[in-house]
Amino acid sequence: MAENIVHWHTIDEKPPSSVPLPEDLHPSLAEALKKRGIHSLYTHQKTAYETAMAGKSFTAVTPTASGKTLFYNLPVLQTVLQNPDARALYLFPTKALAQDQKSELNELHIYRGVFGSHTANVLRRLQRICRFYGSNPIFICTSATIANPVELAEEMTGKKITLIDNNGAPAGRKHFLFYNPPVVNKTMNVRHSATLEVHRLAGEMLKNRIQTIVFARSRVRVEIILTYLKELVKSELGPKSIRGYRGGYLPVERREIERGLRSGRARVKRAERQISLDERPVPCS
Q1: What is the longest distance spanned by two Cα atoms in the chain?
Q2: Are residues 41 and 116 in the same domain?
């Protein structure tokens, strides 16, 4: 297996960069944070809070699990505590992100094509309604992956956007490996099936009890590999340790799968990652 790894890149761990809680934070909110073990903020969280409280719209781009939930929850709760009549509207591009935001799962921030146009139009209509009622909302946008966050956010909202990217969150060491399936016919330069290699690699992860996510391009392939992996370890792990995640599942099934991933009960998630013409994409983390 090692001979098929053609590139291995390692990003070293990064210590946190923290600052005290804002001095103007409402005592009830500060106490609630401390009860949850939050006694300070990362530098980017503090910047986001100050920017929002100054009435400026911003887009924040920091890695996954860097505490982006506080980007919007902190200024929203602070504003509501100061003014009980204040309101905030949370918008997520997909149902899965709306469900996952509380648990800080990896997010996919995709706005393009017809979907992107619809989202932009919804935001414009929202602003027209707000102006009619005398409101001028600020926009707090977050992402872990967008390459042009300011340009995108300004095009989507029509507002001047401030960029926040001074990430102060800690990060563990990360390894990125590029794996090439072995050659099975040197003359024809034919390699082993990528799907079968996924079977084998995911099986090894399972046997070593490493939580894993595998992406496929179709619902059928999701179910095929799901069946294979369940059969592979049926005598070693529980029946719900390997779960599929694709379009077509009922909402109650999705929530159960997501809870299993967060708790660690589900060791492998086989997820569909395909954009077709007749259905919305299923976001996968």
Answers
A1: 74
A2: yes
